[in-house]
Amino acid sequence: xxxxxxxxxxxxxxxxxxxxxxxxxxxxxxxxxxxxxxxxxxxxxxxxxxxxxxxxxxxxxxxxxxxxxxxxxxxxxxxxxxxxxxxxxxxxxxxxxxxxxxxxxxxxxxxxxxxxxxxxxxxxxxxxxxxxxxxxxxxxxxxxxxxxxxxxxxxxxxxxxxxxxxxxxxxxxxxxxxxxxxxxxxxxxxxxxxxxxxxxxxxxxxxxxxxxxxxxxxxxxxxxxxxxxxxxxxxxxxxxxxxxxxxxxxxxxxxxxxxxxxxxxxxxxxxxxxxx
Length: 276
Description:
With 276 residues, the protein is an alpha/beta fold. Helix content is 40%, strand content 22%.
């Protein structure tokens, strides 16, 4: 009888030990927090899904809130990786440095910002000068650029967006977008707005193009992977991830290495963006 009780005790202890160990393995799952650009978001989501399949002990949390917000989160220590569709500004680097953060810049992909209109719009090309004039409000009717006699509805990104920052620099030459523009918080929101309005014009990252809208050529140059890679296309850019060199753990480094490797860059292309 004592032997039976002893055996039962050992069995119960074994179950408890397995339970505790199982609980430990779950609690020890390493978390990578990523915040920032909605443009880099699809790349990050696809890469994270693939990476977690081969690294079961890693959990990746992703939030798309704009490049500026992502960089701010990195500076404040609220994320491991800041996604950005524009380069970090000097003032952001200074602020990071003042908090003891050494920001490391990593180019993970290439992109183009493509102006888009409703599929029924007969316009197929606009020059950089025409785009600037439309977004400044100097050109307000489609007939002024060869289209129908319809008012132009300007759709833009909000100022926390890296896409807005690049558009502001390369197209607007740092002039402000007209005040009554429809400001959107993401590439997806721009697409939805333009797809529902025959008079609208917007701009999105190359990887977001779909059949709901019509992409325009710029200066007669089409937004293609080859033109983006060579940066022949006038509104081309790099896409970034920023990390803090002082707090770069092996899990975060492993995820970045994965994206920069052959499988990760293949996923970049599958997502619709341009491998670096």
